[in-house]
UniProtKB/TrEMBL annotation, chain A:
This is Nucleoside ABC transporter membrane protein. PANTHER family: GUANOSINE ABC TRANSPORTER PERMEASE PROTEIN NUPQ, SUGAR ABC TRANSPORTER INTEGRAL MEMBRANE PROTEIN-RELATED. It comes from the Bacteria. Coiled coil: none annotated. It is a multi-pass membrane protein.
TrEMBL record, chain B:
It holds the Pfam family ABC_tran. SMART domains: AAA. GO terms for molecular function: ATP binding; ATP hydrolysis activity. It is found in: Cell membrane. It comes from Actinokineospora iranica. This is Nucleoside ABC transporter ATP-binding protein. PROSITE patterns: ABC_TRANSPORTER_1 (PS00211), ABC_TRANSPORTER_2 (PS50893). Residues 495-514 are annotated as: Disordered. The keyword ATP-binding applies.
Length: 417, 514
């Protein structure tokens, strides 16, 4: 029979079907922590793995992860949502408005509602009217900050403790600590042992003063993975992003699923904004600082999968936390980044991407050299560090991405076949 | 669900269409169509492209509503507002262009829209069991957990059939199912169809490949210009007779007249090797020489390096080794533009992606690829008047049926778009013509015209490289035949003696030369 053909296909599927087992992930995590630990010992920057850094990283990662989840929902249904940033801004305002009056959870809820409004706007434009997804997204990104600033002037200027560009203080959400573990780990962390103390630092960061918002975010991440990959609803939603005409031919109401997806996307983006506002204690103009876009990048880095986007968000959260720790920590980050890029270079070289490997190696060496020839990073660059690191890693770790097939394609009922 | 039983008495026809008429603005796609499909048979619907077969099937599948006429399924009159209604009545459709999501697994594709549930979860275990069960019952050999992206064309088609069976269809519509298959896969498909028939299912089979129709059908209905012109039994007709019913007149055959092959080499490739991004050799040490006045045909299952070969010859893809010579000069390093200027014409395999801009006018399409040359350019500027005049010439000489040269290419039928492309590529005194699937998806009339143009090119001493999936076309139109398998040219055949079956087995690597 058609022996030659099937043979070839088997070879292809074997290459594709390669998925890492949990054991391998664990090994990678241990390896990464060992490298971190080594860099800490070499540089003496204890902040690299301190529990405080991990806590800060978690807080910084949550809004990014929410934005990335928002992107995931929309893009899996075939709608590009570059308006995430704007929807997050609406979320921050909503959280500020309801948060200072009725408490953080009201803020979260109202932020979500405003995000949904943004999502609906995007859905009406892209799904019903077939507007180009990018244009609609950019319009929302232009509209939302303006609207938020206007409303802020309207409602916050005269509020006690508020201002033209900021809301009054919002109480923070409840935080939970695992009592025994925290103290015990704290003692181990203080010993400065290689690896053991670092592990303790990380674990302590994950068990001490964890905001309920963070817990909620993790739950939403898991819930999203379950809904999108384990339920008929999720299958139908994803089919709209892969082959809408095929879905239509099987009786799936593509418009409905796209609407639901984009509205959910808005809700997640609004949540992301609300988390940001609540965890930093108030709404401020320009608070999102491009986190919507970073979230989108994290989602792409994560190959449109929940686990992957969580990794991307953590990466950004971590570097953001380091930047907050000051220039000493960022200086140590140079060495870490150098090592990371050299690892990327080796991986890419073995995958046969020689040019990419060369670029990664060159930049890696450059960073290592920078580390060894300087004592600190200019403070002007510290704030930019998270963005630079994220960009470098996301760019150079390029992989075989599997984009939803029908993404960004305007869909009209009955146009297929 | 239909209620007829295959055995016992004279069951009601599975499907009966009577007096179906469908008008679109400006055209009547179907007028007064009558078809009766007996239960438990394979019923073939044949006709040229544009004869109205697809419209009719869309009506039967609920994708379009007839303006007039009635549909009865198993004796009961029905009216379908959507495919969902048709599915409920036990009618399923396997589309010519597969309706599959590549990034989803076979299982996900099959159950989409009618998933088995356990609570709010999708019950993957039950779904998998059901897919396996159907696959085994009809011998489809479908693996539920593979990604559709990794499947070959034949397997995808079986997934489509399984999808339809999963929804409980008793009547299957197959729209040109063999258009994308090689002969061996066609045999497998026909085996599957016979199994389905044995289980009491009814199959409506749309095709314009007559020998296949004669091989598999129990009844045949012929359509021409939107209406049914004859209902015949395969025992009573020959392929030739059927073809004449279809076209309404005698039909063209791919054949060459006296040899025009000279000993002057025009296009030569030696050791041409192309490596894909993941390091695989998709084209492996390919060498050939085409002389002036010679047509070299290349046969092969799609995806065995044909596209890469053409792209390497045209300079779209950089070969990792080997060279290309045009009339003695090394052109391996030349850009595509320079190659075209040196006289290489190219009819691409996918005319919508590479051949024309659908949303541009005909004369703009005429300029493409010739934008630096007369009559389209004057110095650095486009010569609109010259281009338009020359487009008019092509439209007349190549019989492109169009209301004018300012309409968008999308307004033309596939055959007419293809004639425009052929006309464009034959302009500007080419010395080489690379034709990749030149008659794919065009009607018989356009097919005959395109063959005639290739013959004329050969007579004008062009070197022609012909790549096609239509084995009769390859055998009839080539002076020399080569087979490409996994990136290598594996066998040469003499087109005057080789049969499609021999070519087919060489294409799959099953055997060499009898």
């Amino acid at each position: 029979m058609s022996g030659g053909v099937t043979l070839e296909q088997k070879a292809v599927s074997a290459k594709r079907g390669k998925r890492l087992s949990p054991m391998v992930y664990l090994l990678i995590a241990v390896g990464a922590l060992a490298v971190l630990s080594l860099v800490r010992v070499l540089s003496g920057a204890t902040d690299l793995t301190s529990s405080g850094t991990v806590q800060a990283a978690l807080i910084a990662a949550v809004p990014i992860a929410m934005a990335a989840l928002a992107g995931l929902w929309a893009e899996r249904a075939g709608v590009i949502n570059i308006g995430l940033e704007g929807m997050m801004v609406l979320g921050t305002f909503g959280a500020g408005y309801a948060g200072y009056q009725w408490g953080p959870w009201a803020g979260v809820a109202f932020g979500l509602v405003l995000g949904v409004v943004g999502g609906l706007l995007h859905a009406v434009a892209t799904v019903t009217f077939g507007v180009d997804h990018i244009i609609s997204g950019v319009a929302i990104n232009l509209l939302a900050p303006g609207a938020a600033l206007f409303l802020s002037k309207l409602y916050f200027a005269d509020a006690p403790g508020g201002g033209q560009k900021q809301s009054p203080r919002i109480a923070d959400a409840e935080k939970i600590t695992i009592p025994g573990a925290s103290d015990l780990l704290g003692t181990v962390e203080a010993k400065r042992w290689f690896f053991v103390s670092d592990l303790a630092g990380v674990l302590r960061g994950l068990t001490t003063e964890v905001s309920l918002l963070t817990v909620l975010a993790v739950a939403l991440l898991v819930l999203t993975a379950w809904v999108l990959w384990r339920t008929p609803f999720g299958l139908r939603l994803r089919s709209c992003g892969e082959a809408p005409t095929a879905a239509e031919s099987l009786g799936v109401n593509v418009y409905r699923y796209k609407y639901l997806a984009v509205v959910a996307s808005g809700a997640f983006a609004g949540l992301g904004g609300a988390f940001l506002a609540v965890s930093s204690g108030q709404f401020r103009d320009g608070q999102t600082g491009g986190r919507g876009f970073i979230g989108l990048a994290a989602m792409i880095f994560g190959n449109w999968r929940p686990g992957g986007l969580a990794t991307g968000a953590t990466l950004f959260g971590y570097t953001d936390a380091m930047a907050l720790r000051g220039s000493g920590a960022v200086h140590a980050l140079l060495l870490l980044l150098g090592i990371a890029l050299l690892v990327v270079a080796v991986i890419q070289y073995r995958a046969g991407h020689h040019v990419l490997s060369g670029v990664a190696a060159a930049i890696g060496v450059l960073f290592a050299w920078w580390y060894f020839t300087s004592d600190e990073v200019p403070p002007e660059l510290v704030g930019a560090a998270p963005y630079v690191v994220t960009l470098l890693v996301l760019g150079l770790a390029s992989q075989r991405l599997r984009v939803p097939r029908a993404i960004g394609v305007p869909y009209q009922r009955g146009q297929g076949v | 669900m239909s209620t007829e039983s295959a055995a016992g008495g004279d069951p009601a026809p599975a499907v009966e269409l009577s007096g179906i008429t469908k008008r679109f603005p400006g055209v009547v796609a179907n007028s007064d169509v009558d078809i009766t499909v007996r239960a438990g048979t394979v019923h073939a619907l044949v006709g040229e492209n544009g004869a109205g077969k697809s419209t009719l099937m869309k009506i039967l599948y609920g994708m379009q509503r007839p303006d007039d006429g009635t549909i009865a399924v198993a004796g009961e009159p029905v009216s379908f507002a959507s495919p969902a209604d048709a599915i409920r009545a036990g009618i399923g459709m396997v589309h010519q262009h597969f309706m599959l999501a590549d990034n989803l697994t076979v299982l996900e594709n099959v159950v989409l829209g009618s998933e088995p549930r356990a609570g709010v979860r999708l019950d993957f275990a039950a779904a998998r069991a059901r897919v396996r069960e159907i696959s085994d019952a009809y011998g489809l050999g479908v693996e539920p957990d593979r990604l559709v992206d990794d499947l070959g064309v034949g397997e995808r088609q079986r997934v489509e059939i399984l999808k339809v069976l999963y929804r409980g269809a008793r009547t299957l519509i197959l729209d040109e199912p063999t258009a994308v298959l090689v002969p061996q896969e066609v045999d497998e498909l026909f085996g599957n169809l016979r199994d389905l028939k044995a289980e009491g299912l009814t199959i409506l089979f749309i095709s314009h490949k007559l020998d296949e129709v004669l091989a598999v059908a129990d009844d045949i209905t012929v359509m021409r210009r939107g209406t049914t012109v004859a209902s015949v039994s395969p025992r009573e007709v020959t392929a030739r007779k059927l073809a004449e019913l279809m076209v309404g007149s005698a039909l063209p055959v791919p054949e060459l007249r006296e040899s025009t092959v000279t000993d002057r080499p025009v296009l030569a490739a030696s050791g041409l090797t192309v490596t894909s991004a993941d390091g695989r050799k998709v084209l492996d040490d390919v060498s050939f020489t085409i002389h002036a006045g010679e047509v070299l045909g290349i046969a092969g299952v799609e995806g065995n390096g044909q596209a890469e070969l053409v792209e390497a010859l045209m300079g779209i893809r950089v070969p990792s080794a080997g060279s290309v010579h045009l009339a003695g000069a090394d052109i391996t390093r030349l850009s595509t533009k320079r190659r075209r200027e040196a006289g290489m014409g190219y009819i691409p395999e996918d005319r919508h992606r590479q051949g024309v801009l659908l949303e541009a006018s005909l004369w703009e399409n005429r300029v493409l690829g010739h934008q630096t040359r007369k009559p389209n350019a004057r110095g650095p500027l486009l010569d609109r008047r010259g281009a338009k005049a020359d487009t008019q010439r092509i439209v007349e000489q190549y019989d492109v049926r169009t209301p004018g040269i300012d309409v968008h290419a999308a307004a033309l039928s596939g055959g007419n778009q293809q004639k425009l492309i052929v006309g464009r590529e034959m302009s500007g005194n080419p010395v080489v013509l690379i034709a990749a699937h030149p008659t794919r998806g065009v009607d018989v009339g356009a097919q005959a015209a395109i063959w005639e143009h290739i013959r004329r090119a050969r007579a004008e001493r062009l070197a022609v490289l012909l790549i096609s999936a239509d084995l009769d076309e390859l055998i009839g139109m080539s002076d020399t035949l080569a087979v490409i398998l996994r990136g290598r040219l594996v066998a040469d055949h003499d087109p005057s003696t080789v049969t499609p079956e021999q070519l087919g087995s060489a294409m799959t690597g099953a055997g060499r030369e009898s």
